[in-house]
């Protein structure tokens, strides 16, 4: 009888071990869940980030939870929802960067890893929250590439710097905007455009009407010798407005080079057969979506925290000659 009882205990232990082993395997098979929250889910830019984050999820074997967060209330609720659904971390482009402290507090309360993309959080004093991992555009470097593209096209057209002037629409209240236009001006000067041929036009609003007004105020300062114009600004709309102002002032498209930054706001203009708006520096939402999702996944699974700042300066000049093909490559053409 003792022998039989011992055998039963042994069998029970084996069975228990087997069950626990199967349970462990089942738990191990559950994929890691990572959130990806964006402020304007309907925009092609964020659709592309999502699509390539999904690509990373399939390659790495994690589950991507995509949530639109158009306002602060939905943002904080979404973070609770991620935690309730077993997520371990998330990437976010917040609807308002001043929500940073509240988002960080909510993430910590739910024990979630957090990384920002595109827009960097600011604290109550308006300072960047540099302790939160962030991946975004290298503003000065991208501005330099914009300026180089402008100078390159001017050279291609055979423009003489003596009768060429640049109107740079600025919005220095926004650090990113100032860095972009500073970079653009830096490149134009290095290309040989004289300092006194660059006119800065401060904008009151960051839209097409605002840049039209700023450019109009600058055009009256041009000398009579001004034949050719370069129009710059921190994004597509600031340049589009500037180009509109040159049209109203009688400048022909052949005598204007406007190059924006972003690409997605320039599609309608580039569809036109001719315009002083020559092109735009198209960033890389596909790279940003895939890279940030991968970074958070690796942080969750290996403990490797992303850098506090990952600068993205990969941009492509899109013009009437190539914009459709370049947008198709990354899913932004529709």
From TrEMBL:
Keywords: Periplasm, Signal, Sugar transport, Transport. InterPro entries: AraF, Bact_Solute-Bind_Prot2, Peripla_BP/Lac1_sug-bd_dom, Peripla_BP_I. It comes from Pseudomonas quercus. Residues 1-28 form the signal peptide. This is L-arabinose-binding periplasmic protein. It is found in: Periplasm. Residues 33-325 form the Periplasmic binding protein/LacI sugar binding domain. Belongs to the bacterial solute-binding protein 2 family.
